[in-house]
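Suppose you are handed a protein chain with no further information: no name, no annotation, nothing but its sequence. What can you learn? This example shows the usual starting point.
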Amino acid sequence: MTPTAYMWWVIFLFTIIRLIWYHNKKRYEVIVMLEGIKKISIIGGSGTGKTTLADNLAGELGLPVYHLDGLNYSENWKENNKDKRDKIILEKIAQPQWIMDGTYTSTLERRLQASDFIIYLDYTSLAQARGVMGRFLKNHGKEKAEIPGCKEKMTFSFFFWVLRWRGKKRKYIVELVNKIDQNKVMLFKNRKQLSKWYRKTFNKDIIIK
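A reasonable first move is to predict its three-dimensional structure. Written in structure tokens, the prediction is:
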């Protein structure tokens, strides 16, 4: 090997080592940051994977998880009293540590203010529709673990509600999120972005049940 070729090999190896070091350094910084976090809010529309992400983060960080859909519905999709639901949510907020997934705008501002870390899954309406349809096709008739007594189902009214949700809710959500210290907000525009971040942070993929 000539001296010139040897020099280029050294430069190449040094560059690779530096890239690996930088990647691990950034991953370590994120993990340290997450370890100091005790209250996480995951928000976004239906079909964005909030519940799946919450369960995965709970497993990684050892935090209790509260699925707000589970507080909103009783057996056979009976909707609970909204005032009682919100009272329970506010009681959960007062606890020292938690992960909460769900948007529910009536308590959203309080949850965001109380959170140490906020993950906003700001997906398109089409992505949401694909998410709820994929979930239905995969789990049709199966009981939802996060909502005991309720089986996965799909209705036309719910599907069209999902399509309209972003247009009706997003402006208000963005206004609230913009009031929060942006250092504690992570926004993802699609599943690919979220999956990449999760893989870099925890060195594994999100487990989808």
